[in-house]
User: Fold these one by one.
Assistant:
Number 1:
Amino acid sequence: QVQLVESGGGLVQAGGSLRVSCVASLVIFRFNSMGWYRQAPGKQRELVASIATDDTTNYADSVKGRFTISRDYSRNRVLLQMDSLKLDDTGVYYCNSQPAHYAWGRGTQVTVSS
């Protein structure tokens, strides 16, 4: 049973914007804090943004002020708006609960070019 499906990645120039989306199973979406994670080439997966069940948000220092995480309750989606993208933002983006409890989805590739 597929529970987390990410989409919306792509190729973008540095300074540009992109929005990635994650559709989650209802139980996961409604009863968990959710997070967006990033795995850059050759590096471990890291948490970049999270949103609690009361919609309180937190961000890694590296993305603070540039990324915005939100929930779309009508579609059980977690969104990540990424602005002022940098080369270091390149990676595969995943969503999961925060902390991560569920099987990882396939992720969505974000590539930032110069």
Number 2:
Amino acid sequence: QVHVVESGGGLVQAGGSLRLSCAASGRTFSSLSMGWFRQAPGKEREFVAQIRSGGGTSYADSAKGRFTISRDNPKNTVYLQMDSLKPEDTAVYFCAAATSSTYIYWGQGTQVTVSS
């Protein structure tokens, strides 16, 4: 079992930045793939970014060039640095952990609101 807790959401103006953090416990953090997902009102949850246990990263097209995912294994934490935020980035952001190819451990989410 892996416990995942997000933090760092809030209200920001368009063009601003936020950094989300996600702490995971219950399993060797360095062995986990970690991902960020988001769900806007009335929409399905969508993939944002992920970082694999080996450090490889991938991003949704909407996040490329603006968001950066990173991990600090000694701190059991993954980060999502979000720059040049747009109103359409407004959503609940979820962190998730995977021991294989499927994300099965999810946090409760943190709200990000970008005002125009």
Number 3:
Amino acid sequence: DVQLQASGGGLVQAGGSLRLSCAASGFSLDDYTIAWFRQYPGKEREGVSCMSGGNGDTRYAASVKGRFTISSDMFSSDNGNTVYLQMNSLEPEDTAVHYCAAALGSWLGAYSDPLDRPYRYWGQGTLVTVSS
């Protein structure tokens, strides 16, 4: 069974940090693009960041660039299957349910915006709340 398990959300004060994790099981991330999305109440999901499971290439939404970092232990000696989103300098506007997703095809250059492509597999959401 292909599964994505997201975790790490919580309550943090503005300026603080959180690290989200997305553990993949049932498939290897090598041939996939893995992304983080967030959703505000009553709004569509929006892309936050994505990573190529093939070469580690990354993309970020303008609203989080310089504050958030996507990474994975698949490129470390752990040879794992987990993707992380390190979120620093959090702002109240970052308060949202965050989801991880995966799409077959690891080359980010195949799409003009790899965050705006179909993603087949989705994890459950994890809530990030940033207090002012």
Number 4:
Amino acid sequence: QVELVESGGGSVQAGGSLKLSCAATSYIYKWRCMAWFRQAPGKEREVVATILFTGDGHTYFADSVKDRFTLSRDHDKNTLYLQMNSLKPEDTGVYHCAADGRLWSGGRCDSRIQSFTYWGQGTQVTVSS
């Protein structure tokens, strides 16, 4: 049974940084795509970023986090990271890691929720103004 465990969330002031970790109980390199999603109170879950583990290693970031968030991975530790800088109050939410995502016909990660097989329980990020 594959498990994804997120950590690194917390409370920060606007402008601060956090680094989220997603540790998998399986070898992450066997998946085509992994991603981070977030869900704010009263809102639908939305994609934050995706990473392709094959080909050119393409990454995708939602417009709302582009140039502030970055992805990295450690295959030896089977861990995906999300570095979040210049945090804003609107970044507040529960951040979920997702794995084993499918590809679009163009060879990029399908960023829809239903694309991903495995999900973590999430880690809370709260950004105060």
